[in-house]
Design brief:
With 583 residues, this protein is an alpha+beta fold. The protein folds into four domains: 45 residues, no CATH class; 220 residues, Spore Coat Polysaccharide Biosynthesis Protein SpsA, Chain A (Alpha-Beta Complex); 99 residues, Phosphorylase Kinase, domain 1; 202 residues, Alpha-Beta Complex (Aminoglycoside 3'-phosphotransferase, Chain: A, domain 2), CATH 3.90.1200. Helices cover 36% and strands 20% of the residues. It contains 18 helices and 26 strands. Helix 13 runs parallel beside helix 17.
Length: 583
């Protein structure tokens, strides 16, 4: 096979030596090819010249992206099923076979884009050195997976986790951008292709008759990647772009994007589709929310239904339904609890802690809350988006620590302490048990991490740190900051526990040797922390991470996508454990 040495210019005669599928034509004289390469300066005395090596480098495959995000609607609950990439053929997971085939071709930089049931793929990082990427939104088209890997597109293979290749289809060098094709008798929901004499794709369509169809992997060369990225970045927020397959998006720009077919014989590529049963949430859910919400709004704000205006559903809230609305010209926020929130939250605790936070000037947005989880709050206008400032702006972080210190100094009576008592390991175990109902035996899957975190928690308890009333979910989304106020909101996870738990997301954005951790702890203690205190607070980054890792597992067990957070907490736990072991 003669590939990757020739230029793509129309006057490059080496193109004439290739068939439509890029293989060397049988009737081509090798002497003619050699002479052509010598004339171009690519070969001299049967060896590649510097120019030839430079040309070859342009054709070298740089990396691969494996799409393994699956698909699931937020309004559905998935029942237990392995993700497609972990289906086994002859005892080998097909995604592992694909990774090994890529590595055999010399491709070491491999990205795996994950979504629903992402935790099943985490082990691939340690076993093969791949990099896990969270899908932009695995509930929509696979274009969202491409979006997650957009910055890595170069000379890149685009692979599907559920493809099984009888032989290794991957090469160290590729000649031009292509999509694998195969003749299909059953073309249901498949894209058939039309192409010109050079095998450039000129059209794709869905037809109900045998045809050559897009099937299997693809290869983006650098030129294709740059143009594809340009179009997608310009249209990423265009209506319905995010529900497309990437092939559909390519077809929108087919005149600008050169993509060729690479045809494989029948049976070379196999695809294994998942059969996942889904359970619909009650279709009357939103309607019921509306009725209950309106009644409570009218009662709390002394208004009528006609007075409620500008109702808008907010995209925020992974566990609850959030809406904003106005009454008599003032803006408010309504939170209605998600249908699974009773498993995650103790609403009785939340009511108590929310009122404590209000009475102690920690959260002044509070207006109404009840034990059903329904909450009405004052809307804070002109809030600063602190996501980019969090960790970076030390004046902001110190102000946050001072606010948390004020919360921790609130005195509780013995009844409140007992009612609010919170053990994060026990709470995490409850979430894990629930998640096991649809995700399999997670205690076995993550036994090592569970044992390590439990052991760490037991050790930290021996430090004798007094328990306090805590928020337990301090993060940028729960901080409202404008010129007039600094509020910490959303007290669903609150309890009476170790104060270091509140620092799980306050200091975990820093390297554990970073002096900024010491600065923040010095603000909290109003003195320099001891080494025991410093390690205690860092240890709780792992405890905090373990709880929210289990929370993410539970949320996805009932069909809610948690994006990159599950993997984030997983990696952070390991980072803390390694740091503490070395100190």
């Amino acid at each position: 096979m003669m590939k990757n040495i020739s230029n793509r210019n129309s006057d490059d005669k080496t193109n004439d030596y290739l068939c439509a599928d890029n293989t060397l034509c049988a009737n081509v004289n090798s002497q003619d090819i050699l002479q052509c390469l010598e004339l171009k300066g690519y070969v001299n005395d049967f060896k590649l010249t510097t120019l030839g090596e430079a040309e070859m480098s342009l054709r070298k495959v740089k990396n691969a992206v494996i799409l393994a995000a699956g698909n699931g609607e937020l309004s559905q609950k998935a029942v237990y099923s392995l993700p497609k990439g972990l289906y086994r053929i002859n005892g080998e997971p097909i995604i592992e076979r694909q990774i090994n085939q890529l590595k055999t071709a010399g491709i070491e930089s491999i990205y795996v884009v994950v979504g629903i049931k992402k935790e099943h793929y985490f082990y691939l990082e340690d076993k093969y050195g791949v990099e896990i990427l969270a899908s932009h939104d695995s509930n929509k088209g696979n274009i969202c997976s491409i979006i997650s890997a957009l910055k890595y597109l170069d000379n890149t293979y685009i692979c599907n986790c559920d493809n099984y290749f009888e032989e290794n289809p991957f090469e160290t060098y590729e000649y031009r951008a292509f999509h694998a094709t195969q003749d299909k008798d059953n073309t249901f929901r498949e894209y058939s292709v039309s192409k010109n004499m050079d095998a450039r794709i000129t059209g794709i369509s869905i037809i109900d008759k045998p045809a050559e169809c897009l099937f299997g992997h693809a290869y983006f060369d650098r030129d294709f990647s740059e143009k594809f990225r340009y179009h997608l970045q310009n249209e990423i927020n265009t209506f319905r772009t995010d529900v497309m397959f990437w092939q559909e998006f390519y077809y929108k720009h087919i005149t600008d994007l050169d993509l060729y077919t690479k045809k494989y014989r029948k049976g070379f590529i196999h695809e294994f589709d998942s059969i996942i049963q889904l359970q619909e949430i009650d279709s009357l859910f939103i309607e019921n929310v509306s009725v209950m919400a309106i009644d409570q709004i009218c009662k709390t704000l002394c208004c009528t239904k006609a007075d409620i205006e500008n109702v808008m559903l907010s995209p925020k809230g992974l566990s609850n339904l959030i809406t904003t609305f106005s009454v008599f010209g003032k803006e408010y926020v309504l939170r209605f609890p998600g249908i699974d929130s009773s498993i995650v939250f103790n609403r009785n605790k939340e009511v108590i802690i929310q009122k404590i936070a209000y009475e102690n000037n920690i959260d002044n947005t509070y207006i109404h809350i009840d034990e059903s989880g329904l909450k009405i709050a004052r809307f804070v206008p002109n809030c600063v988006d602190i996501s980019a400032l969090y960790y970076e702006d030390m004046s902001l972080m110190k102000r946050l620590v001072e606010k948390v210190r004020s919360l921790h100094r609130v005195e509780l009576n013995e009844i409140q302490k007992e009612t609010l008592r919170y053990n994060p390991i026990e709470a995490a175990d409850e979430l894990l048990k629930e998640a096991c109902k649809t995700k399999g035996n997670l205690f076995e899957m993550f036994a090592n991490m569970h044992n390590s975190v439990t052991k760490l928690f037991t050790q930290l308890e021996k430090d004798g740190i007094d328990k306090v009333v805590s928020h337990n979910d301090i993060n940028p989304a729960n901080i409202l900051l404008n010129n007039d106020s600094f509020e910490i909101i959303d007290w669903e996870f609150g309890g009476y526990c170790d104060p270091a738990f509140d620092f799980g997301r306050i200091i975990d954005g820093y390297d554990f040797t970073d002096n900024r951790i010491d600065e923040l702890l010095e603000v909290y203690f109003e003195r320099k922390p001891t080494l025991i205190e410093r390690n205690h607070w860092i240890g709780y980054v792992a405890i905090h991470g373990w709880y929210y890792f289990c929370w993410a597992l539970y949320k996805e067990s009932v069909g809610f996508e948690t994006l990159f957070w599950m993997h984030y907490f997983y990696k952070r736990i390991n980072n803390v454990l390694r740091y503490l072991e070395s100190n």
